[in-house]
Each structure stands twice: as structure tokens, then as C-alpha cells.
Give the backbone structure.
Amino acid sequence: MRCNQSARLDDAIALYRRAIALRPHFPEALNDLGVALWTTHQEGAIEAVRHATSLWPHYADALNNLGVMSAAGGDGDAAMEAWHRAIRVRPRFAAAWTNLGAAFQDAARIDDAIACYRHAASIDSNSPAVDNLLYAVHFHPAFGPEQIAAEHRQWNETFVSPLLSRARPHRNDPIPGRRLNVGYVSPDFRGHPIGRFMLPLLTHHDRDQFEVICYSDVTRDGPATARLRERTDLWRDNIAVRR
């Protein structure tokens, strides 16, 4: 695994293959080989991980990986089955709960998705499920603006409020009546949910009080990017945009 973690993936793959040649029934090596092949977009990744789970049916990490690879390959049923198996083996497996929630969300089973995200977050407060939950509630008919705002306030209370004691005072001169500069940074100023959420915000900024600056890191712009750009006072591209 050290080769894998140091990004020397070709070396890692060679070592995993050698380990498996010496010990064919080696589920850990098969799983790690599958992950390395997957990361480098080589064939045989899902077969290696599936073999690992056949040798060790209670191998939760391999089952989770099998779910990820199955979902990416378009086999949602196999993915959900793998994540259910991983959770049965390891009930407090936050990553598997998060992935299962994402699968439910893709299937428009929003109640189930939210339940999975909440459970994952209860296991690991730093889980991506915490952010996924904020996105999922937008699709639930029972969550109106007040409920969605409450979920975001709770997120703020959990993750932002504890950091406020470290905030340093601003060094700018507090000149009364001066417009405040507000900057937004994102790679998603485009046809993306973030871009769609930002459009009304940028449109309705009070330009008498705020100067709006966007720092864009999109890799490919489009009509949505142009509409956002038109609603800013200053636009900065952080990387060369490929058209």
C-alpha cells in the first residue's frame, strides 16, 4: 500500500500482482490491486475486487469498492447490493452508508437517501454525507425554504461556529459608506447546481453596497458561465478556460 499512497501506482500494481502470484488467495492484495487499476483506468479492476469478496465475503472495504465500481459501470442494483452487504458486515461503515444514500438519491428515493446521510453523519461528523444531506433536502417535497435554511444553519453551527474564535480582525479601514468587496470562488460557475444557485444571488446583490468579484476555476465554460459573468463587477479566471 505504500507504493499506492505515494502515487507510484505502476510499482504498486506490479507488487500486488507478484503478491497474488505467490499467494493466489490473498483478498487484501486483490482489493488493493483493483483500486490501483481503477485509479489508473486500467482493465480488470472490478474483477479483482469481486474476486476479493468471493474469497472473503465479509471484507467490508472490498464490498464498498465493489459498490463504487458497479455504480460507475451503470449497474445500480449490484452497487446497492454490495453496499448493503458492507453495512451488514460493518454497521458503522460511514462511507458505505454515504454511498448507499447517493444511490437512493439517484433513484429518487429521497427519504431513504436522507436517512442514510443522517446515519453516516452520526457515525462520522466529517463524512461527505453531511454535505450530501444539504443537497438532498432540496429534492424533498416536505422541505420548504425554512427547513432547508434550518439544515444549513445547523451545518454552520457544527462546522463554522467552532472556528470563529480563530478569526483574525480585518485590517482594512472601516470607512462608512464604502462599498464592501465580496468575492466568490468556485469551479462550478457553469451549468451546475452551484451555478444555478449563484445566478439569483449575483442578480440581486445591492450594487450600491457591494462590489461583487468572482474567481472562476471552471475547466469548460458555456452560456451559464457567461450569464454569471455578466452579473459581476469583476471576473477572474484562475486557469486557462478550454473552449
Observations:
- The CA atoms of residues 33 and 163 lie 40 Å apart.
- The two ends are 39 Å apart (CA to CA).
- The domain at 92-159 is CATH 1.25.40 (Serine Threonine Protein Phosphatase 5, Tetratricopeptide repeat).
